[in-house]
Amino acid sequence: MNRLRAVVFDVDGTLVDSERDGHRVAFNAAFEEFGLPDHWDVETYGRLIRIAGGAQRLTAWFEANGRTHEESVALARRVHRRKTEIMRELVQTPISVELPAPGEACSTELRSEHGQIGPRPGVIALLDRLTAAGVPMHVATTGTRAWVAPLLDRVFGDRFDIVITGSEVTDLKPDPTVYREVIRRIGDSDGVVVVEDSGNGVRAAVGAGLPVLVTANPYTRDDDFTGATLVTDGFDDPRLVEWFDHRLGNRLGR
């Protein structure tokens, strides 16, 4: 793929570490508000994230911990509704946390427990390069618009042209519907590439006929990325940087 016409990004775990530092935090806050004894630490959430969809994740968890299927579905629905509200509050309201001074060690868990959601390393540099080269950028996520929109606005500003969320497309990845909807709005898939972090995301993109670049994170590094064009460890991985260098060089006058 030598002609780069547009880039479509996933959000959770791709553009931002919102799974560990956002959703997990919001789930735990919702558990506490409902007076539930449940708590998902980083390792536990890493296992549960294999289950697509927050309500589905909750249902499976409640069932595995002794509730009937009917009880689990009903409780999951209530908890997930409040969790989504908390996630929206979290991404809209800066949280005041006493962080170490520059140069001092900073605990990842300290940031994550207080909902400090930010771009993954190397993301802003790539977005700046794509902007300078005039390459349109879009988003395809099955996250709810109620929290996706304020998060994108706070962290990235007005960078993305088309943003499709789970509020418009209800079929979860690995179903390809969300990517097919982006293609429909773009007009065609020629020169369009996807950036994803998970095996489910790769299958969704491939199912829509799109090439996909993987920027894996600690939660997804062991996923099955069959069908991906390139698998890397993140946006600052030299292989990903080189991939875009090759396609953006002429557009940036190099």
Quick summary:
The chain has helices at about 20-35, 40-50, 55-65, 70-90, 110-115, 125-130, 145-155, 175-185, 200-205, 240-250, and strands at about 5-10, 135-140, 165, 190-195, 210-215, 230.
Tags for this entry?
2 domains; 46% helix; 254 residues; DNA polymerase, domain 1; single chain; Rossmann fold; alpha/beta
Structure, explained:
- It comes from Microlunatus phosphovorus (strain ATCC 700054 / DSM 10555 / JCM 9379 / NBRC 101784 / NCIMB 13414 / VKM Ac-1990 / NM-1).
- GO terms for molecular function: hydrolase activity.
- This is Putative phosphatase.
- InterPro entries: CbbY-like, HAD-like_sf, HAD-SF_hydro_IA, HAD_sf, PGP-like_dom2.
- Pfam families: Hydrolase.
- With 254 residues, this protein is α/β, with parallel strands linked by helices.
- The chain folds into two domains: 6-17 and 118-248, 3-Layer(aba) Sandwich (Rossmann fold); 19-113, DNA polymerase, domain 1 (Orthogonal Bundle).
- It is built from ten helices and six strands; from the N terminus they run E-H-H-H-H-H-H-E-H-E-H-E-H-E-E-H.
- The protein has helices at 18-33, 42-48, 54-64, 69-92, 108-113, 123-132, 145-156, 177-186, 199-207, 238-248, and strands spanning 6-9, 137-140, 163-164, 192-196, 212-215, 230-232.
- It has a six-stranded parallel β-sheet with strand order 3-2-1-4-5-6.
- The longest helix is centred in the N-terminal third of the chain and has 24 residues, at 69-92.
- It is elongated, with a radius of gyration of 18 Å.
